[in-house]
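Incident log, structure service

09:12 report received: a user says their structure output differs between two submissions of the same chain.
09:20 pulled the input from the user's history:
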Amino acid sequence: EVQLVESGGGLVQAGGSLRLSCAASRFTFDDYAIGWFRRVAGKEHEGISCLVDSGRTYYADSVKGRATASSDNAKNTVYLDMKSLSPEDSAHYYCAVVQKRSPVTYYSDSSCGVGYYGMDHWGKGTLVIVSP
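09:34 re-ran on a clean worker, output below:
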């Protein structure tokens, strides 16, 4: 079974940056769209990026211009780099993957077209706290 483990969360000052990592095992990158989601207590999961393939990555308006999703296939790791952080970015961050069973255009939004609960596999998350 696919396993995903996030890391890189922690306490960051407003205006700072961070890199979240998602170590993946037992899956082939080309077969999956890779999403980053975040959740604040009491709110729904927000899809903030979906990396569909090397030429297609989608971002939520809330992070567009501040976030970059990437992958290192040799290391089986996906990254989410974020800058200009604000306290509104404080949340649990999760990576998740969905197998590409449909044409890639189906996954063409920041929630990979299926939303958090439509993904096939999820990590347990990493907490990011941005202090004012």
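09:41 both user submissions now match this output. Likely a transient worker issue. Closing.
09:42 reviewer note: The radius of gyration is 14 Å. The chain has a mean pLDDT of 95.
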